[in-house]
Design brief:
216 residues, alpha+beta, Arc Repressor Mutant, subunit A, ADP-ribosylation fold, four-stranded antiparallel beta sheet, three-stranded antiparallel beta sheet, 6 helices, 29% helix, 25% strand
Length: 216
Amino acid sequence: MCPVYKCPICGRYVTTPVHCGRKCIYLMSDSQREALSRLMSALLRHIPHEAGLKLDNEGFVSIEELVKGIRERWRNRDLYRWVTEDHVRAIVELDPRGRFEIRDNKIRATYGHSVKVDIKYVEDREVKVLYHGTTRDRLDSILRQGIVRGRRLYVHLTDSIEIAKEIGKRHGSNVVVLEIDVECLRKRGFKVYRASRTIYLTEYVPPECIKNVIYV
């Protein structure tokens, strides 16, 4: 990740210190950006109660409440006293995977929840191939049982091999990427939803729909 700045001319959040021909306002370092992004994901997907947040049925909470929860109620709040609404909005605007959505000054995670939310995803009827990143030690089990959603509400897939690799690295260093036949999913009654620019969701991937294993 790169440091984040705000352009004083157009107001955009950028990753370069100069924009619109003017020096930008420094907002946060690359390490602060990564830490805040991870914390926002955790709070909006899994543990909102740990920062005193109450998500609505669609997973939204006000940006003001999120900032207050991080600064005042999160257990490591002393590390995040610097967080403002600007920082939250910058994380959302610059996120390459579209993990967050802002609507009417409210924010939510667009996918990845383990807490119960009711998000109306649009079914995708066109994509043919998707990918899932995992590690070699999980491969035998997946090839026998398929890809299950575990604690989360859906199985996560992506249209990018590179993103699948990045996701796989969260689980270990020996990464493999599974190529998924999406028409196979549809024929077996598993709908596929588009959650963001690069992320797709389904309830389950049967073993027979795993088309190929890419060793990386």
